[in-house]
Amino acid sequence: MLATLRPRFSSLPSVIAAAAACATLTTATVAHADVVWVGSFETGDLSEWSFVAHGEYVEIQWELVAEGELGARVELHNDAVWPNGLKRVELQHLPEASRTVEGATTWFAWSFYLPEALPEEYDQAIGYWESNISYQQVMAFNVRGDDIVFATRRPSNVEQWQADDVVTPGVWHRIAMRVAWSTAQGSVSVWFDGQQVVDEATAQTLADENGCFVQIGLLRDAIEFDDMPVIVLDDAVEGDSIEDVRPDPPAVDGGDDSGSDDGGESTGGPSGGDTGEGGSGAGLDTSGGGGGGNGDAGPAEGTSGAPGSESSDGLALPPGFSDTGDAGASDGEQGSCQCRSGGSRRTDTAWGLVLLALLGMRRRLARRR
Description:
By secondary structure, the protein is an alpha+beta fold. It has two domains: 62 residues, no CATH class; 307 residues, Jelly Rolls (Sandwich). The protein is 12% helix and 29% strand. β9 and β10 form a beta hairpin. It is globular. The two termini are 32 Å apart. The N terminus is likely disordered.
């Protein structure tokens, strides 16, 4: 049974019958365009994602959603420490290898919601692209308070877009991107809440011969803090066109929150690295490789560096990860994701489907009243 979704039903047969009866209705609610990949959380778990950093602080919830019935609440705690000291709770999507190679073009978008503005005194990365295996960040979005910066990292750190007072708390926002990949001269376009803010800015979008992955969530430097920033994520999409990724902000009410020069600052990517101040727009840069501070590419201690390695429960993990490499990960779970504690993966999926069906029926009944 899902750790964060605890449906309690008195009659399982009647629930199954109800789910079957409204299956055709709920299909229309969660339907997507013919896109390459979707991170919608409608599975009721985090199985759509390639990897999760500190998944014990990721909660599948239905109080705040941009699309469909479910979203993910991410809390950044001071003890969400990566081996290099950085504080991070993030979801990773690793596209198919051919989709981020020289000459390829990727469209990607996601929606986010801030119950409260992020602190101005800290720099928080909410999303970035980074090279696989070598862990060199190539572009990132950083937020302080209500302000946002988008910067490309190569061949030098360039602040491509900066806007004040646009990351409004209490409403859904959406970031969409078009990336043309190249180790020489690629380009990036960005849409924020449906408005194009970057138009084919030139940059080196590939750090080396490796493809790239994207991570979204919350990342801070190796600092101590007492607050607990929260971001809610939903409706991540990879596609082949602007129509696939739908750049306009979600047309939904915010709802109520259920709980409380180049270089930049190097965060070492998923496997560690060192930190160092950069120039304007540097923000939190996840460049530096996985050598634990020497800038060499490679997995951190306790991780598997073999591509296609498997976790202890048989799930394929991206290169540089293992289910024992992160603090807090327990046996039988992918990385540190502990959102599926108890029960089998099949049971979790069944409960998720049943719950989705009931939620869809409840909302439709409420509308009819």
